[in-house]
Amino acid sequence: MDASLDTIRHQIVQLLPRLRRYAIALAGSTADGDDLVQDTVERALKGLHAWEPGTRLDSWMFRIAKNRFIDKRRAAGRRPVSGSDVLETVDAAFDGERAIEARLSLRSVTRALQDLPEEQRHAVALVLVDGLSYREAADVLEIPIGTLTSRIARARESLVEALGC
Amino acid sequence: MLTREDRETLNAFIDGQLPPEEMKRVAALLAERPDWENYVRQQDKLKRALGMEAVIRAPVPERLLQTAQSAPVSWRWWLARQFNRRPGWILSAATAALALSLAVGVVTQPENGIGLSGGQMVAEGSLRQALDTKLASTGYDGKGPRIGLSFRDRTGADCRTFRDGKTAGLACHRSGSWVIQAMAASENETGSAPYRMAGSEMPDMIRQAVEARIAGTPYGAAAEARARAAGWPGAR
Lengths: 165, 236
Prior knowledge:
The complex is a heterodimer of chains A (165) and B (236).
Chain A: H1 3-27, H2 30-46, H3 57-76, H4 86-93, H5 96-115, H6 118-130, H7 134-141, H8 145-163
Chain B: H1 4-14, H2 20-29, H3 34-50, H4 53-57, H5 62-70, H6 75-84, H7 93-103, E1 114-117, E2 120-123, H8 125-133, E3 146-152, E4 158-164, E5 167-174, E6 177-185, H9 204-213, H10 221-229
Antiparallel strand pairs in B: 1-2, 3-4, 4-5, 5-6
Helix pairs in contact in B: 1-3
């Protein structure tokens, strides 16, 4: 009876790794990122009537995540992020030497992202982290493409410096 | 030295955002421009780091899977879906006329299904039987009234939407009777429409009647079957 709901839930499950990465990029830690993902998925299902079938589910959910992140941030005020719990994620994914490498890289990446101005971080998280097209990312953020690309261009410079690429 | 325009072009190249011809042109130019190539190499490295492969490869926490698989879905979505599956529920002038005639008490009797009892319209005959016994979850048997949504209303009564011939409606079970709460006429007969009217399948009058009354979400298959087995007792 609920075949299409099953399909949507399945699509959401498939999206979870990307949503996690996006949320960690915004929030700066696994714990806060996963809370954001949980909140996003609950909101999406509770508001599923607002999603237009045939349009992209990923962009729609990224937009919900972005709005929830901004709302929460406003409510809680800025608080420092340690970034240390991103390590758990790495240990679950890699063994041995690769884990150390990935851990260093993940820690420095989340830190560098946290140091960006928030509007740049939003743009980077969609385009450079997730790989959305400029058009899709501009739609999610509700900004013109030119604004998006100039934010990303500025962020690239800071990130290259911070990460020593 | 890279100009600002160079950077813009190369950034779009790295992000795969140039038209196919431009992508090819820039790719070919890299061989002649070591400064361009260096920039591309550096930015590729940056993008790889930002891709957080470890996060993508890590197992997703159980609680997130649980949420995706079982968090409640908006009842508005259920409602839209129920009605969208039944093509031909169309509001028309006839709807308004029927609703008006019902409101002033001139009761029509669609296929011997509605009577007056204690000043209320109640389901009788085949409609009553369908409301008592049919399950939407097992599909339409092709005979007589068809049941749509079942749900509990804010007073605690069990309510069901139905469709009988050209009439669609909502009835709630009170004191042993199915009291008609709303009715609307539609152009097409039960299950007879092979095509859909673009974007207008939802019968606003019935949908609004449901929205005004529903408490929580519509019954799923199990809740519907339980309510039938118990004789539509509502919240008692």
